[in-house]
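Retry 2 of 3 after timeout on previous attempt. Resubmitting structure tokens to design endpoint.
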């Protein structure tokens, strides 16, 4: 148990793999009610994490206050296994990282990160990452991040997770921001979160991505989330998956090109119901911004079969709903 401590850590320039709390094979670990101030000094070659937990089951991290300053540095993408076209991130600057942990709980924490400097091309920060973590519960946290080129609020790879009741507020001052990113064949539920993302160029509220190397895709439901996104190009919800229920979400997207919900399902029809979507795009053409789908202004863009009903959509674009699928139902 790590409980009721005040932890102040300032890294040395060039310090190698620097942590405030490091846990490996620490089953049933509890980290609770600590105040941690962490100043990492990564040179782009060393890992800096306020908290790093690996191969540890039934870990509980709750009621902590964590204030971090990190250098925003490029992610190293590693092909694993070789010649597989499957690339995994080795991220150097993160506030909290869980690696291969089962049944973890991250709850009622206040987690804040601001970048202190940046280096290299495509410099990045992950605020919280779960890598290969099954049965995780991420609930009732405040996650705040202010980054430079790329910054992510919560990045998940794992089965049967619950992400619920979190306030996620993420800013980039140059390029790219993502509130929640879900990768590979993850499964779970994302519900009742407040997500606010702001960036000069591209902003994603929730982004669920396919793994093209192994042709894996998430299977996640998205219920009753509140998303506000402001950028040149907004993808408030960009969802690839097996099949999903996307219901009861309230979305406001502001910028030049604004999309409320973009989805592509591989196994079954998506169910898109009872969402309230407002897209306030200033432009009605399309623009390539690095996503597979060009940025544009539309409430819902369906790339696969779907059931779209009982949504309230307000759009400044030419269309409220666009579908390129062979079959689908759009009603009410």
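Retry 2 succeeded. Sequence:
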């Amino acid at each position: 148990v790590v409980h009721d401590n005040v932890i102040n850590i300032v890294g040395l320039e060039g310090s190698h793999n620097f942590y405030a709390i490091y846990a490996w094979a620490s089953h049933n670990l509890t980290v609770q009610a600590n105040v941690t101030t962490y100043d990492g000094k990564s040179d782009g070659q060393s890992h800096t994490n306020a908290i790093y937990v690996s191969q540890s089951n039934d870990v509980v991290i709750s009621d902590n206050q964590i204030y971090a300053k990190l250098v925003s540095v490029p992610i190293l993408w590693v092909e694993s296994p070789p010649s597989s076209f499957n690339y995994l991130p080795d991220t150097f600057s993160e506030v909290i990282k869980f690696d291969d942990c089962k049944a973890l709980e991250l709850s009622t924490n206040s987690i804040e990160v601001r970048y202190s400097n940046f280096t290299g091309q495509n410099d990045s920060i992950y605020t919280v990452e779960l890598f290969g973590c099954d049965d995780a519960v991420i609930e009732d946290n405040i996650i705040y991040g202010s980054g430079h080129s790329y910054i992510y609020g919560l990045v998940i790879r794992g089965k049967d997770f619950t992400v619920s009741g979190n306030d996620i507020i993420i800013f980039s001052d140059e390029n790219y921001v993502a509130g929640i990113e879900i990768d590979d064949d993850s499964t779970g539920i994302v519900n009742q979160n407040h997500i606010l993302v702001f960036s000069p160029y591209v902003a994603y509220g929730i982004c669920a991505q396919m793994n093209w190397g192994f042709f894996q895709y998430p299977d996640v439901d998205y219920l009753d989330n509140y998303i506000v996104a402001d950028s040149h190009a907004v993808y408030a919800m960009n969802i690839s998956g097996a099949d999903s229920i996307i219901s009861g979400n309230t979305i406001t997207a502001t910028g030049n090109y604004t999309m409320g919900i973009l989805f592509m399902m591989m196994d079954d029809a998506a169910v898109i119901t009872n969402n309230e979507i407002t897209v306030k795009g200033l432009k009605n053409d399309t623009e390539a911004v690095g996503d597979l789908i060009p940025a544009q202004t539309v409430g819902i863009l369906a790339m696969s079969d779907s059931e779209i009903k009982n949504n309230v959509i307000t759009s400044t674009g030419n269309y409220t709903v666009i579908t390129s699928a062979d079959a689908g139902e759009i009603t009410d």
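Attempt log closed. The chain has a mean pLDDT of 94.
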